[in-house]
Amino acid sequence: MEKNGIGASPGIAIAKAFVFVKQEAEIPTDTVEDAVAEIAVLDKALDESKDQLIKIKDKAVEALGEEDAAIFEAHALVLEDPEFAGAIREEIKANKTNAALATKNVTDMYYATFDAMEDPYFRGRAADIRDVGTRVLNNLLGIENVDISSLDEDTIIIAEDLAPSDTAQMDKKHVKGFATDVGSRTSHTAIMARSLEIPAVLGLGDITEVVKTGQQVIVDGTTGEVIVEPDQKTLEKYEADQKAYLEYKRVLAELKDKPAVTKDGHEVELVANIGSPNDVEAVLQNGGTGVGLYRTEFLYMNSEVMPDEESQFEAYKKVLEAFHGDPVIIRTLDIGGDKKLPYLELEEEMNPFLGLRAVRLCFKEKNLFKTQLRAILRASVYGNAKIMFPMISGVPEVLQAKEILKECMEELDKEGVKYDKEIAVGIMVEIPAAAVIADKIVPHVDFFSIGTNDLCQYTLVVDRMNQVISYLYDPYSPAILRLIKNVIQASHSEVGKFTGMCGEFAGDPYATLILMGLGLDEFSMSASSIPQVKNIVRSVTYEQAQKIANRALEFDTGAEILDYAKKEIEKLGIKVV
Ligand code: PEP
Ligand code: MG
Question: Which of 298, 460, 541, 565 is most enclosed, with most CB atoms within 10 A?
Answer without folding.
Answer: 565
